[in-house]
Amino acid sequence: MRVLMFGWEFPPHITGGLGTACFGLSRSLARLGIDLLFVVPRAYGDEDQSMINLVNASDITVDLEESEYHEFWKRIQYMSVASQIIPYVGTEEYSKINFEELKDEFQNNSIFTHKYTFSGKYGNNLLYEVSRYALIASGIAASNKFDVIHAHDWLTYPAGIAAKEVSGKPLVIHVHATEFDRSGENVNKDVFDIEKRGMEAADQVITVSNLTRNIVINKYGIDPSKVTTVYNGADAFQAQEIKSIDRPFPEKVVTFLGRITFQKGPDYFVEAARKVLEKDPNVRFVMAGSGDMLPRIVKMVAKYRMGDRFHFTGFLKGDDVDKMFAYSDVYVMPSVSEPFGISPLEAMRSNVPVVISHQSGVSEILVHALKIDFWDIDAMADSIYGLLHYDGISKMFKKYGREEVDQLKWDNAAANTIDVYNKVL
Questions:
Q1: Strand partners, 354
Q2: Mean pLDDT, the chain, as a whole number?
Q3: CB–CB of 6/39 below 8 Å?
C-alpha cells in the first residue's frame, strides 16, 4: 500500500507535538510495510529520510497559466485571501502585519509561476502558504501513484482535498487539534470552515483521543461512523540518558513546557505556583515556551512578586528539552483543552512525575499521573506540593510512570491507522 501524506512540519524542524507525531507515526507505518510519500512545505536536508520518501514542496514547479492549475485555483477560493488567520504569532508580531500588503501580494498571479520557497512556519503569510500548498498538492497527486491520501491538521486539509479531487483516491484526515481547542468558544470562523470542509470531504477521520472525537462529532456534525480514535505513541525519540547534571540552584524545579496560549492554561499554572510558594518558598518554576499570552503571564508573575522564583526560557527543542526535564522534579500540563498531549509522555520517559488536566486526551490512557481539572488551582497546587515533598509518592510515579509510557508504542498507533486505511479501500 502506498500513502501520500501531507504534513506541515517534520523533525528536527518542529514547533510542537504535531511534528513529533508525524515522525513517530510515519516511521512506524514504514516499519509495518507502508510505502510513504511524505510532503512538507519546506525540507532542510537534515531530516531523517531513512524510512520514508520526503517531498519538499518548495522544490515543486507550478505555473498558474497551465490550465489544470488555473482551474484548480478557482476551486479553492473558499479560503479567505490574506485572511487574518495568524494563530501562532505573538501580539507584537501580529500588530506589525500589513494585511493590505499581503492581499496585494496574494492576488498577484506572477508569484504562482515557477517555484515558491515556503517558510514552513506559522507567520504572517500562513494562509497564502496553505493555499499555495494545496495548489502544489494537486500537481503532486497528478504525477504520483498512491492508494490513500492522509492529511495532518487543518493546515494540510485543503491539500488533501486537492489531491482527492485530482486523483479520486480516498482521503483520511488526522485531527490533532481543533479550533475549539485553540480558541475555546471564540472560534475563528475561517479556520473552523477549513476544518469542517476537510472533515466532510474525508472518507475517514482519525482523532487523537475520544475527547477530540466528541468535539468532531458534536461541534462539526460529522457522522460518528467515520470517526476513529487512534492514540499517539511515546517512542518517537529516545530520551537522552543524562546520568548527572549540575543544577544551577539547590531548589526543586516545577516545569511547564508548551505554547503560552489560552489552550495550554499557563495562567492556572501561575496561580498554582503562587499557592505552592505560600507553603514552600524554596521552589523554582520554569515556563518553557512562547506565545501570545507571554506578556500577560510575565505581568502576573510580577504582580504576585514571584520574579525571583520564576524562569522564562523561551521555546525549547531537542537536547534543551532533555536537559530541562533532567533539571525538573515535577512536570505540569494544565491544559484547558488538549486533544492529546505528548509532552507529559516525554517527561515520564525522563523519569519526571507529571500533573495533567482531566481536559486532555492523554488522561484517557495514563494511570500513573496525577489528574486535576485545569481550573482547580488548589488541587493542582496540592499535587505539585505532594510530589515535591513526599519521596514515596514521587518515586512510585517515576518508576511506574516510566514503565507505563514505555508500553505506548507508535507501532500500535500505526497498526490502527492501517485498519483505517483498509476501511476506505
A1: 331
A2: 84
A3: yes
Q: Is the pLDDT of residue 122 over 70?
A: no
Residue 196: the pLDDT is: 96
Residue 176: closest CA among 342, 414, 325, 391: 342
Give the number of other Cβ atoms within 10 Å of residue 296's Cβ.
Answer: 14
Least confident of 36-40, 71-75, 306-310: 71-75
Q: Which of 109, 83, 13 is nearest to 54 (CA)?
A: 13
Question: What radius of gyration do the chain's Cα atoms show?
Answer: 22
The separation between CA 129 and the C-alpha centre of its own chain, rounded to angstroms, equals 18
What is the CATH T-level fold of the domain 252-405, as seen in this structure? Rossmann fold (3.40.50)
Could you identify the residue written with the cell 494563530? 87
**Which residues, in sequence order, are bridge partners of residue 152?**
174
CB 133 within 8 A of CB 124: no
As a CATH number, domain 2-233+410-424 is: 3.40.50.2000
Residue 94 clears pLDDT 50, i.e. is over it: no
Task: Name the segment(s) of the chain with CATH classification 3.40.50.2000.
Answer: 2-233+410-424, 252-405
40 neighbors 34 (Cβ within 8 angstroms): no
